TrEMBL record, chain A:
The keyword Membrane applies. Keywords: Membrane, Transmembrane, Transmembrane helix. The keyword Transmembrane applies. It comes from the Bacteria. This is Uncharacterized protein. The chain crosses the membrane at residues 18-39, 51-73, 79-96, 112-136, 156-180, 192-213.
UniProtKB/TrEMBL annotation, chain B:
Belongs to the selenium-binding protein family. InterPro entries: Se-bd. This is Selenium-binding protein. It comes from the Bacteria. It comes from Paracoccus aestuariivivens. GO terms for molecular function: selenium binding. Pfam families: SBP56.
């Protein structure tokens, strides 16, 4: 983990948030639609807020279980390796199985929180920052051998990581949505959409591999 | 799967109107006596091309007795909603159901759109086994894949259980299963369409298979036994929410045409015939306060005729009913085109005020009694039937056959394939193009038309035109 300074890790949390926010597949066009179908900018921002809540809960759903077991300081390495392998496996799965689960199409257009939660979960948005989070916990944990203090610190870090990631996601996605709504027009929806499924899957594998480095 | 969304996907109806005009049409040809397999014809629509208005190629199917009717694309502009997860599908495959055989053909229009190839055949047994439905009809691509409405239930005559909608996978084309979770009182089917962001579906009723397969049954029609209701559904919950009975004399509610702009919560449906006075009618349905409503907003009267000019079916009436067999709405939701297959007229209504359609244009061609020839002098059998509008709304194309056995009752002299084009004036009005007259292979009848890059009866949009 040499070279992965704490600043670098936090920066990765921010950048991954911006990446997720900019991706149309994570929902900003739905916020534009909410604005256009409703009362304008107010509904757009409300839609973006719903997407953010779903994304935040989805990331926390992945990070919190790890935050809770990390107090087992003796098993930290094994947990880190298991988590990294999980992320790599999921990335490999995304490479092979690119299909969007049809079940998601049953979620109503008005259930943006649920949709955002589900889409982030099935794409592994939370998994993508899991190795980064574990890296941060190790950076934090240097010299701290009191298990209880470590656990509380890990929880705080998980919340901070998820919040920061989501703030970056909603800021980026929201800015694009506002720009499309106010200036760029809906032509931008198809123009800005690139098939990043492969890049996404490879990103998962890459962060997983980095997480394996002791 | 592609790297960028298909260039024929457009976020809004307005963007689709601004896109490049269509250059090819795909037209279904059916063999009315089942002596040869049905076919798909490709017609050149490019005015700059040497072969403008001519048949480029025909693709014959491997089996006979399918009776082609309606068909659709595997993907459309609705893929541009993140909710579908289909952003990188290509508009590439035509899904062509055999209404009589329940066989479904998947035709690939790439790499050469002028010479499409057969990609896959879904045998009737797979449809029967997985859905309990038969006689597939309307195709729409949507959030859960490809939706197919059917006109028959199980059993040899399709009356063992109600007909409904089933879903196909939009990549593998596997039949997945029934769409409905709760169907309420719905027991007949015809067309369906939806408003995707508003999350509702509307479906209509024609008849059960014994009422149409061997021809129209006059006693059943006069007893008002054909369909006359509209059904409204919760799209994602797959549940029936409301039924509106148009009145039993309003026989055969067929094409459902919602406004393309999803911010508008209304649409139209055409009724073939009113058994009390032989009128055809246009109805406007709309949603208000969470409830659906429907009202008759235009009527077209029958035309008196000498019984000597009429087929036996109509001789007793001494009149020709207009028989509204298809309607189609332009992408700007301004003009509604109404096929009067009996009287031989294509009507254009200005529906800027959907509650008060105003007649804006009309063209006579064919007809049971009028038998108007094409402006190029060629006879046109049958009447205006399946109608398709170019995305930009400037051109309208239509064919002449309704359904093999019904053609024979209303037009006993036969209905050889014809496809015509009319140009639309800037403020409405219709003029037939004298130079457009594809020469289809003989022995066929022409049915539905699909335009390369999408058209007004296949595209669903998820963003409003602003």
């Amino acid at each position: 983990m040499e070279g992965w300074t704490q600043t670098g890790l936090w920066l990765t949390v921010l950048l991954s948030g911006a990446y997720h926010g900019a991706s149309p597949a994570m929902g900003w066009p739905l916020a534009v639609s909410a604005g256009l179908m409703g009362r304008g900018r107010r509904d757009l921002l409300a839609g973006m807020g719903q997407l953010a809540v779903g994304h935040l809960v989805s990331v926390l759903a992945v990070l919190l279980p790890f935050a809770l077991v990390l107090w087992l300081v003796t098993y930290q390495d094994r947990i880190r390796i298991a988590a990294s392998l999980l992320v790599i496996l999921f990335g490999a799965y995304r490479l092979v199985q690119r299909r969007h689960p049809r079940r998601l199409a049953r979620i109503r257009p008005t259930q943006l929180v649920l949709w955002s939660f589900a889409i982030a979960l099935v794409h592994g948005a939370g998994l993508m920052i899991l190795p980064v989070y574990l890296g941060l916990c190790r950076a934090d944990g240097h010299g701290a051998f009191l298990a209880q203090g470590v656990a509380a610190g890990n929880l705080q870090t998980a919340l901070a990581v998820a919040l920061l990631h989501t703030v970056a996601m909603v800021t980026t996605g929201g800015a694009i949505a506002l720009a499309v709504h106010g200036w760029l027009g809906l032509r931008f929806v198809s123009r800005s959409w690139f098939n990043l499924e492969t890049v996404w899957a490879l990103s998962l594998i890459a962060v997983g591999v980095l997480g394996l480095i002791p | 799967m592609t790297i960028r969304p298909d260039p024929t996907f457009h976020a809004t109806p307005r963007l689709a109107m601004q896109a490049e005009p269509e250059k090819l049409a795909y037209t279904l040809l059916l063999s009315p006596d089942f002596s040869q397999p049905d076919a798909l014809a490709v017609v050149d629509l490019d005015p700059q091309s040497q072969g403008f208005g001519q048949v480029v190629s025909t693709l014959a199917m491997p089996k006979a007795r399918d009776e082609f009717h309606h068909f659709g694309w595997n993907a459309c502009s609705s893929s541009l909603s993140p909710l579908t997860g289909h952003a990188f599908l290509e508009r590439r495959y035509l899904i062509i159901p055999g209404l009589r055989s329940s066989r479904i053909y998947i035709v690939d229009t790439k790499p050469d759109p002028r010479h499409p190839k057969l990609h896959k055949v879904i045998e009737p047994e797979e449809v029967f086994r997985k859905t309990g439905y038969s006689r597939p009809h309307t195709i729409h691509c949507g959030p859960e894949g490809i939706y197919v409405s059917t006109l028959g239930g199980a059993g040899p005559d399709g009356t063992d259980g109600p007909p409904g909608i089933f879903i196909m996978d939009c990549q593998t084309f596997d039949v997945i299963g029934r769409w409905e979770i709760e169907r309420g009182p719905q027991d007949k089917h015809y067309d369906f369409w939806w408003n995707l962001p508003r999350d509702y579906m509307v479906s209509s009723e024609w008849a059960l298979p014994p009422q149409f397969e061997n021809g129209i049954v006059p006693e059943q029609l006069l007893a008002n036994k054909y369909g006359h209701r509209l059904h409204f559904w919760d799209l994602r919950a797959r549940k029936h929410v409301q039924v509106i009975d148009l009145g039993e004399n309003h026989q055969m509610a067929l094409e459902v045409r919602p406004a393309h702009d999803p911010v508008k919560q209304y649409g139209f449906v055409g009724v073939v015939v009113d058994t009390t006075n032989l009128e055809g009618s246009i109805w406007t349905w709309w949603r208000e306060g969470g409830q659906f409503h429907c009202r008759k907003t235009a009527t077209i009267p029958p035309e008196p005729a000498d019984p000597a000019d009429l087929p036996p079916l109509l001789q007793g009436f001494g009149a020709v009913p207009p028989l509204i067999t298809d309607i189609d709405l332009s992408l700007d939701d301004r003009f509604l085109y109404v096929s009067c297959w009996g009287t031989g007229e294509m009507r254009q209504y200005d529906v800027s005020d959907p509650m008060a359609p105003k007649l804006a244009g009309s063209v006579h061609i064919g007809g049971i009694a009028r038998r108007t020839a094409h402006p190029n002098g060629k006879p046109y059998a049958g009447g205006p039937q399946m109608v398709e509008i170019s995305r930009d709304g400037k051109r309208v194309y239509w064919t002449n056959s309704l359904y093999s056995t019904w053609d024979d009752q209303f037009y006993p002299a036969g209905v050889p394939s014809a496809m015509v084009k009319a140009d639309v004036g800037p403020q409405g009005g219709l003029t037939l193009d004298k130079d457009f007259w594809p020469d289809f292979p003989s022995g066929f009848r022409a049915h539905q038309i699909r335009l390369e890059g999408g058209d007004c009866s296949t595209e669903s949009f998820c963003y409003p035109s602003v």
